[in-house]
Amino acid sequence: MNPSPVNPCPTNTRLHTLGPVDQIPLGEGRAFGVDGEQVAVFRLRDGTLRALSAVCPHRGGPIADGTIDRQVVICPLHQHAFDLETGCSRTGAEPLRAYSVREDAEQNIVLHNEMNDVEN
Length: 120
Description:
Distance between the termini: 33 Å
Largest sheet: 6 strands, antiparallel
Shape: globular
Radius of gyration: 16 Å
């Protein structure tokens, strides 16, 4: 019998309640401090939530202040576009980290922050 494979970088998930969803107007984003990082949470016009790293890797632009549509956010400083699902750049910049985010039964924003054990 073979032992189960061991994940070299086990993860754990920390849940963070960031407050009421209505603090983010439809079609906008807001930045939150989570585990020492800045995270931009976006509330799309259909009410769904997306979350990415809040700092543009190009020149540190404030991603939460960017223009969004259903698929991308555009950095307000140099117009780099990032996919809201994956964080991948559509304009050649380094990618942003994507986070899992949802609205709970009490209409609060809940962010899932998966961290490698080496980060803890």
